[in-house]
Write a structure and sequence with these properties.
Strand content: 15-25%
Strand order of the largest sheet: 3-2-1-4-5-6
Structural class: alpha/beta
CATH topology: Rossmann fold
CATH architecture: 3-Layer(aba) Sandwich
Number of domains: 1
Shape: globular
Number of strands: 6
Distance between the termini: 17 Å
Radius of gyration: 15 Å
Order of helices and strands: EHHEHEHEHEHEH
CATH class: Alpha Beta
Largest sheet: 6 strands, parallel
CATH superfamily: Isochorismatase-like
Length: about 190
Amino acid sequence: MTLVETIDSDKTAVIIVDMLNDFVRPNGALPVPGAENLIPNQQRILEKAREEGLFVVYIADHHMPDDEEFDVWGAHAVEGTKGAQVIDEIAPKENEKVIPKRRYSGFFGTDLDLTLREHDIEQVIIFGVLTDICVNYTSAGATARGYEAIVVSDAVSSNDEEDHRFALKHMQKVHDTEVVTTEELLAAMS
């Protein structure tokens, strides 16, 4: 039996990674090619997840103005800016949590693990950007902490297709993450 066949709405969370204006919008600080094209699949997943009562949490890159990471990537997702906000199309609802992060993994230096455990979560469905960086590190963080992880391949994106494909294979082989399409996920959630 695959993980996607065992989705229990009481034990499963959706983690949306870095779907922020600075990464999604063409005029953002670090636009990810094709990120806007992910929105329809992400909206469908969120609609179904909310309908089924899954816990929804957003992980949002969130940096101080002098963050060391800017030496590598340049300034992006600076605290208090529009660029650091989740895009309107999949904005969090009032009861959904946004957890700021300063590094690639949603688990490093955040209360994501504690938040998931407080809600008795055992399985996570992950989507967002970048497949090979923050999605990958968040997947690794999840499985290293004992969560079953599912990544939605057509709801994540990278700066190039080769990095995207490599990261999906890497997550499957190394993190034991299940990789599914939006259609496969939605069928399992019905």
